[in-house]
Design a protein that fits this description.
Layout: H1 2-22, H2 25-40, E1 67-74, E2 85-92, H3 108-115, E3 123-128, E4 131-132, H4 138-141
Antiparallel strand pairs: 1-2, 1-3, 3-4
Length: 143
C-alpha cells in the first residue's frame, strides 16, 4: 500500500511538472513543419547537376576584383512578398574599400551570398571582373 501511494504521489508530481511544457508542443510541431518545408524546397542552384565543365575556372591570383551589381532584384524564396534589392546598381572597383552597413534584414549577408551564388537574383546580373557569376564554377566562387 505504501509503495502504491508513493508511486501515485511521484506520478502526480511528475505530471504537474510536465504540464507546464505541454503548451509548447504545438509551437514545436509548427516550427518543425516550417523547417521541413524549407528543407524540402528545391534549390534553383543545383551544384551537383550543373555543367561545371563548361564553366570558367578561377585561377588563384587571376581576379582583378571588380564586383558589379547591374539592376539586381532579389527576394528570398521563403518571403516572396518582401524585396531585399530593388534594382541595385553598384560597382566596386579593385582596391576600393567598401563597408556594407544597415539594419537587420537590409541585405548585407545577401549581398555576399549573391556573389558566391548561394542565391541568384530574380532579375539583373552580378559580375566579377565583367563576367557574370553564373559563368564561373561554383566551387571556385566559394573558396
Amino acid at each position: 500500500m505504501f509503495t502504491a501511494m508513493f508511486s501515485l504521489m511521484f506520478g502526480v508530481f511528475a505530471f504537474m511538472q510536465a504540464k507546464g511544457n505541454v503548451i509548447h508542443v504545438d509551437t514545436a510541431f509548427e516550427s518543425a513543419r516550417k523547417v521541413l518545408h524549407v528543407m524540402e524546397t528545391p534549390s534553383k542552384i543545383d551544384i551537383l547537376h550543373e555543367q561545371e565543365k563548361e564553366k570558367k575556372a578561377i585561377m588563384q591570383g587571376s581576379l582583378k576584383g571588380k564586383i558589379e551589381f547591374r539592376d539586381v532584384w532579389f527576394r528570398y524564396p521563403t518571403r516572396p512578398e518582401q524585396w531585399i534589392f530593388k534594382g541595385l546598381n553598384l560597382t566596386i572597383n579593385p582596391d576600393e574599400i567598401v563597408a556594407v552597413v544597415g539594419e537587420s534584414g537590409a541585405g548585407k549577408s545577401t549581398f555576399i551570398n549573391l556573389i558566391m551564388r548561394f542565391y541568384e537574383p530574380e532579375m539583373g546580373q552580378v559580375l566579377i571582373d565583367d563576367v557574370d557569376v553564373r559563368d564561373y564554377k561554383i566551387a571556385d566562387l566559394r573558396m
